[in-house]
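A quick aside before the break. I want you to see a complete sequence-to-structure record at least once, exactly as it would be stored in a machine-readable document. Don't worry about memorizing anything.
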Amino acid sequence: MRLPHAIFVLTLAAVVAGCSDIGLRNLKPPGQGPDEFSVLPVKPLTEPKDYAFLPAPTPGGANLTDPNPQADAVVALGGSEAALNPNTPIPASDAALVTASSRYGVPANTRQVTAEEDAAFRKSRGRWTRLRLFPVDRYSQVYERQAIDANNANEAARQRGIETPSAPPLE
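That is the input. The structure line, written in tokens, reads:
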């Protein structure tokens, strides 16, 4: 009578262990959560040149330390902040670039569409992998076909004559 009882206990322990949380590799979100792209660091505080001529406060308005990622990106790429003004015409030297980059349009709901497509893909690929006796890495299971084998890609690059000095040796 002891042996069947022990087998039952071990089987029950294995089933319970299979239901444990695998942490960051779990594809199901715990909730809506914050949007990581809405958190922006502020610019550092600077001392004014003259304390006698401080600008008037603007409640609800922009602050000097508020981030402006679009203007910062334009300046970092060599442009001017004046180019962000919608009334400023596009310079003739940039007209071809603007035409080429916007020829397919930019949908406003790109994130939502991508998230819906990815959820549908995970659902279709994970249909038969839901019930497991032991914990499995669902991420690796679902995206197995999209995974790039680093050694194969490295070897393909070497065969084309591309140097890969920082690649680790094959194991």
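Two observations worth writing down. Helices lie at 2-18, 69-76, 95-101, 110-125, 138-142, 150-159. Residues 2-30+108-159 form one domain. We'll return to this after the break.
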